[in-house]
Amino acid sequence: MKKTILFLACLSGFAAGVQAQKPDTARAVVHYKFSHLRDTTHRDKPYTENMVLFVGATSSAYKSYDRKIQEALMKKQVADQMAEQKGNGGRVNIKVTGAAPTTRNEFYQFPMQHKLVRKERLITPYMIEEPMPVIDWKISADTASFSGLHCQKATGHFKGRDYTAWFCPDLPFHAGPWKLNGLPGLIVEAYDANKEVVFKFDGLDEVTNTPKPATEAPVPGGATIKLIGMDDANDDPNVIALPTDAVKTTEKEFRNLEAAMRKDPNAFAQSAMAGSGGGMRAGGPGEGPGGGGGGPQMRIQINGTGPVINNPLELPEKK
């Protein structure tokens, strides 16, 4: 029987279905250098990350480019180590390094349906739907060029911040990075008045036919590796589609799940893996490698409380 070995790539929850959304094909891929001053006590150390926006005729998807690169490197590390440990009698010791923190959520805009969907991960994906934000943009006559793209200036207030956006009327996509949208052209760069949140344009790619990557990494010995919480249901990076196996939930329910995961990450992961049919189990208190029970074990530990964020992306509106 073919064996599948499941490795936990990030923390998640329980599988359920999301109503199918018709897939769209990206027509342009926009790169941004994202910068966010999370901690105002360290103004010289803003958080930075490379992000990417896939833009289609009827939808767009905004994701972490750094995360995608990390996932590819992680898959290679796991596959290489599995191949090296072939013949160890079922005992597997995998060490994955070099995984810096990245943005785990993704944003899908559906302008014609006036809908925004945020994708989160707690091992399996969760979907939180909300109305498409309506931003009262003021378009000015000011123009600028970004790598040969002729752009026009617009200003608007959104989520407690005053934004300047530069959009390209020659690219007739009503989309932009994160939740920004609603201009008669693609938003190629945007920033708030204090430059605490910046989406800096870093290039635009033509969409080409990209070979589909393997969804599972084969290793010698008849086993395959699937990294739970990382693989997209969609194999083609140029297709914009919501995962069909995601859990549709509300903001409140998702925050409760996050709290449950932080309280007992091993129990949370055990439930998720049981639902996925995985062959790996999370070790309980006092259990080490070789403890009771069948199948490989892992122990999940969450250290600290995460980064200091006293200046969130979305600020409360002043009354």
TrEMBL record:
InterPro entries tied to this protein: GLPGLI
Keyword Zinc-finger: no
Signal peptide: 1-20
Origin superkingdom: Bacteria
Transmembrane annotation, as ranges: none
Gly residues: compositionally biased ranges: 275-296
Region (Disordered): 272-319
Record keyword Hydrolase present: no
Keywords, alphabetical: Signal
Alphabetized Pfam families for the sequence: Porph_ging (PF09697)
The protein's name: GLPGLI family protein
